Amino acid sequence: MLDALLPSDPDCACEPTLETDRLRIESEPCPGAGRLAEEPACRRTAIEALEQRDVETVHTRANGFERAYEDGAADLLVAAGRFADAVGFHDEALAERARGDPLGAGRAAVGRGDAVARLVAETGVAAFLGSDYATTLRPHVGPTVARSRVATRSPPGATLRARYELDTGAVVRKYGGDPLGTYHITPAEHRLDAAATATLAAAHRRLARGAVTGGERAPSRAVRSVAADDQPVETIASALSKHTRGLGVLDDCFADPGVTDAFATAPVSENRLRVRCDGETLRTNVRLTEEGVSALASRFRRSSGRAFSQADPTLAATADASGRRIRVAGVTDPVSTGTGFTFRAHDESAFRLADLVDNGTLPRRAAAFLAVATARGAATLLAGARGAGKTTLLGALLWEIPPDVRTVAIEDTPELPIAELQADERDVQPLRVSTDGGASIEATDALRTALRLGDGALVVGEVRGEEAQVLYEAMRVGAADGSVLGTIHGGGGESVRERVVTDLGVPESAFADTDLVVTVEAYDGSEGRQRRLATIEAVRRGEDGVDFEALYDADDGTDALTDDDALDSFRGPTEPVSDVRDAIERRARALP
How many Å apart are CA 74 and CA 77, to the nearest integer? Predict the structure, then answer.
């Protein structure tokens, strides 16, 4: 339901409209531009409208910007509307003052000690009497093209710890706090003047109407079609592209190399975005709008080819933000109160073994051993907990498969460096599998398809269901004559055996065809969240089943990676073990 209202203050040209739970104010023609903290005339217009009905938020729009007054700001405006309405029965002059200056009117009423004084507490105005408008009526601001709103003022009383500028032109300020600090980001478009912001809004309208075409260049063309000669066209075009083709303010966040995660918690209009930066979780000054989250959900549905609705309320997808690969996990009704997302940078998927040695994840000789084992066709399971780096290591090992070996890679959510391998002229065929009825095939069918697509290496992004039986059957009959690589949740050989044999129903005699179980782990180190190789275990077939031989153990110092027993299974029929050892030494010398 909409109720259009007219302001009574001649100095205000705002046009308020009451919606179900929001007061929307078009302030384009108003000289005060709907700035409720600074302009008493605009504040009067809003409070007069709120004498009729309570709302949850107040939004003003002017000059290409929207200001969202939420939480305490909305509470003050609503309380002022109640107070002005109620006090008018006792003192019309005080009610008139309350419409433009509710804090001053409230303080005056408290001193009277009569029924009017009681109304200050009953309507909620009393809760704000120790504050001021600049602090209490602090809006979240954003260009009308944006799907997020940013609090531009710094947190009250906070201590600035760092300030730096990102490649996108956004400025980041980090503030200390207890228990959480603040990651305060000011996107470049928030520093545009009124004329440039109006140009951004006009260009967006042209783009939305389809008046400008040109694919990736369309945002730039739209801006150039309406911009004045003296305006910062590139900055405006970059902002338009970010908010129409990219992930909006998330592009700014992930332009910061220290940011690894962003969390948009449902309901997003009530929760500020949080980020994990340099290993520290911080609140931000950003809120996504409900419209923005709906747009993101639609985008991820299209890009992933999967349903994301009340019938299928979870989502796994990938996206790009500021040149970084981002993993996206989403939830929506009915398993969540609205739609929420977690975004995680997955830059590591294109890492090589040299990178993992350089950053301390792998010791040099262990990396060389895994490289040679992979090149010589080892069947290896990479184990660890969520976030331990299994997929990162798997992606690095793919580069160790000989260039003349065909590889079929089966994934649920695309995370492996397939495009990079193909650009290097590797013969890699990806297959997307489904776990939620999306536009793809089931994992077991994908494995059977992979085995028909040509002999060579077989890569399984995650071993977790019925496909495990097909995988081990393929290994048993030699259907894959190259390396077999996969990740699995587990904390070492025994844990992996329990998972594969007991939970997934693979006979232990078939599991014995695994050559290596490699376990990685994450831990909190001196430089924040770090990863390391924990163990390398060889799988040995024994009389009573399967045993595990520790070839490397980071905790107890075991290192038997170049012992004859460790290398014997990787040599050719007439090849001496020393040739395998020499190959490992050569590979180790090539690493940093």
Answer: 5
